[in-house]
Amino acid sequence: MNIYWIIQIILGLLGLSLLVFIHELGHFLAAKYCGVRVLTFSIGFGKKLLRINRGGTDYCISAIPFGGYVAMAGENPEQVRDDRSDDFHVQPIWKRALIAFAGPAFNVIFAYFLLTGIYMIGNPEPVSDKLVVGIVEPRSAAAEAGIAGGDTIFTIDGKKANGWEKLREEMGISIGRNLSLEIGTKEGRKSVIVTPRELGELGIGTAGIHPRHRVFVAAEPLSDSPASKAGIKQSDTILSVDGYVIGYFQDMINIISASDGREVEVVFLRTGDTLRAAMTPLWNDDAERYLVGIQMGLAQFDELQVVPQPLGTALVMAAKRSYAMGTAVFRYISRIIQGEVKLRAMSGPVGIVQVIGLVWLENLQRAVFLLALISINLGVMNLLPLAITDGGVLLFLLIEKLRGKPISQDNQARIQKGALAFFVALFLYITFIDLGRGSMLMK
């Protein structure tokens, strides 16, 4: 493991710990507000590495950094309860519900403010609702559907193709599902059916479609070469050769090789200006093909625009994005049930740490956006009515309200033990997958 991976893991742990802290802070503040005695506020589980006691509460950082907890007096049904007035279980239902709800609510509120800040700074957004295809993988689902480089994707299942991120998401959750794409080709518009396949063994789908890439001149052309004589310089972007759009290295190589030494017209971009030049490829005995004397580089076209928003607009956009992020959880769960996303596509704490650390090293703004996404998902998942989640606590409280009395301590303990066994097994399964992904990335 090199220093890059160590830094990535540290950043990932810090990011996850921040979200856990926000979640537990919600429970903690609500408990204090309701007059409930808090025994422990811990970031992480297991052995306590650092402990400070203030006002009867142990504030801890524990050895296992994946998660955290707030322990309140009278909360655990398996422990003997003293029935003190500041115990959790003797509080009225509305107070207990408020404490349970506060953790997920803090995660959602935290994410909302993060998103608002991102939109005020300016978040990269697609410049167009049309996607120009750059590369189509051979023998991929897209290739078999007849999609080719240079085609334009207008709609996906009748909805506007709003950016490559949206396209990847739709393909990712649609393994084996027929998707209707309206595309534009040289012959005109038509509809095609694409059926995404699983990407390796990652549990998500792919159609093998990629954005346009720009081929640029990576170094000054060779002296006295056709490119140099045509006035092409380092950092110029090659847009087309003889009318053929250039989106990949091989496009350039194929066209120049097929020229048979005749003059070709090159259209290129330089600092915002579109220029034209003519050059005559020369035969190279070593390469056994025609060359023009340039070293090519490849970068994805910037098809995004950054527009800072005023506070009012940012608040509205953040609300819409928060809703979309929160409800996406249920789309994924339904697609897993339908088999259009594999269970192995799920990520646990290990995978989350890997992704947060990786994105943090690449782009700070994307990392903050990712934290907002994970924070909302953490909040929503914790509200699901599962026995060991905050939603499970709220479900028990609803049953208590309807019955007029709580479920017995023994029954609560049995339900929680069964749920805990299930979630521990699921956690181990997902962690095994996460570690497998991590090992592949480190090779």
- Principal-axis shape: elongated
Number of strands: 20
| Gyration radius, in Å | 28 Å
What is the overall pLDDT average?
Answer: 82
Describe the 3D structure.
The protein has helices at 3-33, 93-121, 141-144, 164-172, 226-229, 249-257, 311-338, 349-362, 364-383, 390-403, 409-442, and strands at residues 38-54, 57-72, 124-126, 131-136, 152-156, 159-160, 179-185, 188-194, 197-198, 205-206, 209-211, 213-217, 237-241, 244-245, 264-270, 273-279, 282-284, 289-291, 296-300, 304-306. The protein is of the alpha+beta class and 443 residues long. It is elongated, with a radius of gyration of 28 Å.
Provide the fold topology:
Layout: H1 3-33, E1 38-54, E2 57-72, H2 93-121, E3 124-126, E4 131-136, H3 141-144, E5 152-156, E6 159-160, H4 164-172, E7 179-185, E8 188-194, E9 197-198, E10 205-206, E11 209-211, E12 213-217, H5 226-229, E13 237-241, E14 244-245, H6 249-257, E15 264-270, E16 273-279, E17 282-284, E18 289-291, E19 296-300, E20 304-306, H7 311-338, H8 349-362, H9 364-383, H10 390-403, H11 409-442
Antiparallel strand pairs: 1-2, 3-20, 4-5, 4-11, 5-6, 5-7, 7-8, 9-10, 12-13, 12-19, 13-14, 13-15, 15-16, 17-18
